[in-house]
């Protein structure tokens, strides 16, 4: 994933176009790379190169893709937008389509070139990619929301890939240090004169000490993250992605985003004190902050004197001297509060660093874990489809980012993101693929074509990270839209991705909270909607997505049409569907995707506690009490916010019948911050018959009813059973709360009206 260094018009739609294109001609067994390229390549080499990622595509269920396209046909649903930080030379893209479309949508801007955008584009479209018919609209930009609007409003693009993300805190500090002006750079490059000459640093220790100082500096950045998160722009990043997600939902734009590569920023080396257990750092056998700092000063001066001997090449010297300056800035500020003010702003950057507390390894683990999961969660929004990374064995990679606990479906699904070299053991079991890759590697090492093209092929064979697998999902969506000749909604795409996916191979634990020890391990746990925390619902299959669509079994409803049974009951459950299962099956799953124009809180402007325009003692007598209840809740729990309220939930009664006996299981799915809920059941008894009833649970309504009744009980000194305060049935049947029953009924009526005006739901039930 590329790091992003910076943080409603009426859409213009185009008339449907369907066209068939010819294949470019070959001359003397040579072809152009694409119609706009002047470079020729041997036809046999070309056919070999475009098969490089075929094993990955096959594992994603793309089985109808020709290994070498013999004809092309495109329509308006083939449009794909790509937003990247850098540009690239499109003349090296591989496509024999005589009508191949690659359009830069901000051609007046000049951006530096890299191979990243080339790899992303190649995976989505071109003869190399999943949808050779794709028309690519490419935007190199550091203004994401403006780029999305440009692609949508001016080019009619509704499918956009973003293999990029915000700069992590450590990298932000690194860039800020590198951007210091010459005068200041000179000061941090000058020697220390207040160090202890008795601390001996030997040249043989330099490499190991440099490693320890780097780990320490990086650990300090993440350990102090909570106190410095706004300095790193955390709220700005979160607001940016919220704006992007809301714009996507409002306009039906499918944005596919890399989950990120930040997960291994916090390493296991930071988790204990082994890297600090050096003779130079000890005072009377104990790790000493003072000795570490004095040792660093001695180390710094020594390295400055011997840098040409320590790092013989200019490239090594430049890298390590910059790293040394970065470490110096962090340690000077954290240990002595001297010298640098972060980005020339009057902030408290690193001032609250407590070294004694830092030495408590367990406490440090919690701080580091909270820091990295909070940072990774900033770019999650329900309006953006996030993709995680697995290796060839369908196991989570150590670098792939994921959200903290109870924070939605992030990532939603996963695809393949490891290096080909790491995947070779499984990938090359096929003789065909083994032979093909041997020939590709020979080609890359040869000098058959110019250096720039060979460099791009070398880059893409070693390509890895979330930037690699997000375009795989984008390519699948583009391909299925092309085949169906239909623009799919965000909800359609989520439903088919989740319903077609196969879970990662790692066995997940129950709904537990993960901790530092599991950050970069293969460990996973379940979220409350049966997604796994690191890989989501798993790896989707293109052929299965198409089967789901073609089956005609996707159910789309307006929830208010299901009825009003929940209004008069002591619950918030409404029957969604009920069925006896007559087909043969082993696994049963039901996936649901919710869509709303507004949440209940937005509909009633519950954010406006003091001047709410809907307050009226004549019409909405419940509303003033609910607003007071929200205020009361916030006073008790400062971390409470509207975003943590579940949108909805699913409860399922699964019945087993055998002989004269019946058994019931209660299944459920209730993850906050997500529109996707998923329930499943494994049939253990092949001789029994089964039936199920799915209930739509209005969890958002339930939360507000509990808030209201809890507040009314507090206000009227009604003592409640502490063990039942989260049980709505307990509230609704409590005799002392009986007088407020009208408030409850009114709120439920208003919620039904909200459903009628704002909410849609679609689902798919799968038996296999």
From TrEMBL:
Keyword annotations of the record: Signal
The Peptidase S8/S53 domain, residue ranges: 383-508
Signal peptide residue numbers: 1-22
GO biological process, one term: proteolysis
InterPro entries xref list: Peptidase_S8/S53_dom (IPR000209), Peptidase_S8/S53_dom_sf (IPR036852)
Taxonomic superkingdom: Bacteria
Name of the protein this chain belongs to: Putative membrane protein
